[in-house]
Design goal:
Elements lengths: L1 E6 L3 H12 L4 E5 L24 H14 L3 E4 L2 E5 L4 E5 L3 E9 L3 E3 L7 H4 L4 E2 L2 H4 L7 E5 L3 H11 L4 E5 L9 H8 L4 E4 L3 E6 L6 E5 L3 E5 L2 E4 L3 E3 L28 E3 L11 H22 L1
Parallel strand pairs: 1-2, 1-6, 2-3, 6-17, 8-15, 9-10, 9-15, 10-11
Antiparallel strand pairs: 4-5, 5-6, 7-16, 12-13, 13-14
Bound molecules: flavin-adenine dinucleotide.
The site of flavin-adenine dinucleotide (FAD) has 40 residues, from helix 1, strand 2, strand 7 and helix 7.
Amino acid sequence: MHDVVIVGCGIAGMTSAIYLARAGKKVLILERDTIGGQIASSPLVENFPGYKSISGSELSNNIYEQVENLNIDVEIEDVLKIEKGDIKKVITDDNTYECKSIILATGAKYRLLGLENEENLIGNGLHFCVACDGAFYKDKVVAVIGGGNSAIVNVNALSDICRKVYVIQNLDDLTCELSLKRQLSNKDNVEVICSSVVTRLIGDEFLEGIVIKNTEEREIKLDGMFISIGLVPQSELASNFIDLDKYNYILSDDCKTNVDGIFVAGDCRTKKYRQLTTAANDGTISAMEAIRYLDTCK
Ligand SMILES: Cc1cc2nc3c(=O)[nH]c(=O)nc-3n(C[C@H](O)[C@H](O)[C@H](O)COP(=O)(O)OP(=O)(O)OC[C@H]3O[C@@H](n4cnc5c(N)ncnc54)[C@H](O)[C@@H]3O)c2cc1C
């Protein structure tokens, strides 16, 4: 019997595990795919305190080393189902585990365009997060794909550092708030192209440009591209017994869900900013709340 089973071995899940193990709790982390989660695929991180510059895989490995040093159990298994109760059951593709508490740290995935070679170009000219990677494109030419609020916030930020920013929107107008649209109209280095979809990414190892299509195709040379068409929370596991918001993020109050003894941390929960540091922050809070829950349940 574990005190806590953590679903997801990203930054949030590993941070939770470190706090729990150091408090003497018996912890198991279950991960279905990659240790480190989303950041493991990023070639460069420059906004994690303590490191001027580090690759995502090295950062993940460093944190994982801490997890290993604390003798925390980690299994590569896909969690398929959770049964709530005083003793909870976590059912994977291989095993059933019993535990007193659960932390859901299942993260989120950026929505992709569905184009050939897209996944290979992530981090190599193709990005999602302007706060993370925008600074690499000072005085360069970039495109933002999308026309909603987060896309246009990204465009505004990039237009302050880039030589030129293209905005490619599939609908016939931007769908962002009017105030954001007004800010755009004052920028002479921004070109908005509506009613157009990206049909092809140019570049094998590194993104060199895109082909967009309205009635005719047009090729645009780029140094970088930011896809801003939303995130998909990995919350399907919780969907039939935990409250979610309308976008399927797990609702929480200080990382506590509506189910006793089940906590949530990281990108899969409702919050405004999804970053490494906020994932680590949630890892800490969820662990502290789980420790409190376990100690008062004794
Ligand atoms: C390319 C890229 C670059 C980025 N760069 C930066 C940056 O420079 N700075 C920054 O602050 N942020 C950056 N981010 C965002 C940052 O990576 C995330 O905010 C952060 O990693 C979220 O951590 P997490 O632990 O909440 O979730 P995740 O990293 O998504 O981890 C969740 C884990 O849970 C696992 N999981 C999900 N469901 C199950 C299940 N049913 N069973 C078992 N396991 C499951 C997943 O496989 C995944 O490994 C970047 C993101 C990407 C994609």
